[in-house]
Amino acid sequence: MCGIVGLMIKSEGLRHSLGSLVLPMFDCMAERGPDSAGLAVFDTAVKLPRRRFSLFSGRGDCDWNSMVRELESATDAKIDLENCDNHAEIVAPLDALQLRSWLSARGNDVRLLAVGRSMTLFKDVGRPDQVARRYNFETLEGTHCVGHTRMATESQVSPAHAHPFAAGEDFCLVHNGSLSNPYSLRRLLEEENLEFETDNDSEAACRFLEWRMRQGDTIEKALHAAFEKIDGFYTFLIGTAQQLVLVRDPFACKPAVVAETDQYVAISSEFRSLAHLPGIAEANIFEPLPEQIYAWHVA
Amino acid sequence: MKTALLDLKKLSLRELNDYLHHRLAAEGISTVDILNPNGMHNIAVGLDRAVEVNIRGNAGYFVAGMNQRATVNVHGNVGWSVAENIMSGIVRVKGNASECAAASGHGGLVVIEGDASSRCGISMKGCDIVVAGSIGHMSGFMAQAGHLLVCGDAGAHLGDSLYEAVIYVAGSIRSLGADAREEPMTEPDHAKVAELLDRAGIEFRARDFKRVASARTLYHWNSANHNRY
User: What is this model's ipTM?
Assistant: First the structure.
């Protein structure tokens, strides 16, 4: 069992409330997944060549300021840093390859969680309500977000194994369920020289979809390929810079419910985590059908 | 007629169910109004006396599970497994029901005035289910006894591995499951449909229901199939 939450704000005036609206959804779904948690938030895109890099250090005493100064002098770039506890976001005119190789040459335990122009990703182990407060989810602003509360069933509990999983740029996925063939997916992708960070089944699904989209598929086409290739139980919620996308497997064994108003689209594993939302009594509430692709675009 | 008003913003779920189980009778309460259910799970489970319970809003999983004798009306939608293992009484959902509505119900009546999702009536053992809207895939899976009546459409694999429950569908059937077959409607079937609609208080005049029942080909091991295994 795991919990999924997602929220897309339709009216610009509410975007500053993204975090405060999603926090009770997230807290409620902590009951479905008490061991780790994560949230990807999408906000205004930074201008290329600058990108947002979400970083994680498990050491607890990471000196982010001096790391950024080292990176600035190594790359001759102006870098902005925002950090909180184990997490930091830097905005820098670099690409993922450059930063990853610099981090690995530097040889400490800072890991690159996600890259994009719009997306910032937080994830960590611990009770989801505590993780949410550790990283001040309540204050987050943006257009949409994708969150997850995890109850690990098939691979270890670690910050890297927490959801959302990210691949490429501005692409992330959360998963409730379990896949039966993650290793055949991995073998397929490893032949395409894709690298994995964990042995988690959901990471395989995330990388499969992002790889298909890099080959030119639309997300719809990539998901139809996934229906063919991915075996197992899943509710997937996918975030991109412009979209939230929701699908359930053909048996639809894992729950999902959607509530839509003029103000927002909210997605959760269970209705009770949506019950506090403003205007919920008038919302269009429905259960997504199996193997149907539901996509919502940023206005 | 005494009514109790119970607000789930003020009471914990455990306090609410404890009241319904242990204090209701002593206080001579005949109807209960439950406010602010907010999708909470396990509301009004295990009732065992003739009382009317109105849940004013959306309920979560297992609402009115194991019901005996009570009438439970949910004025909203419900999550998974409403009226699971219902023994008797009536459970009515004014909105839509999620998966596994009335799963393994032994008796009583479950009415869904909206749609029911997948696995409606899975393994039902004698209850009656009336759905005014449509039902999702794998409904009536391994249903053993009782009736499932659907005024709308049925999803894929209806009645897979059916035993002796009978399913009536007014709309389309996406596909039948293994060993389920459509059979001609007889006069007793028409009478049963009318009786179920009447008991459910659902006004629906169509006469052309389809009857789906077990072909009973999975009941016994067939040695002629041995080589297939």
Answer: 0.93
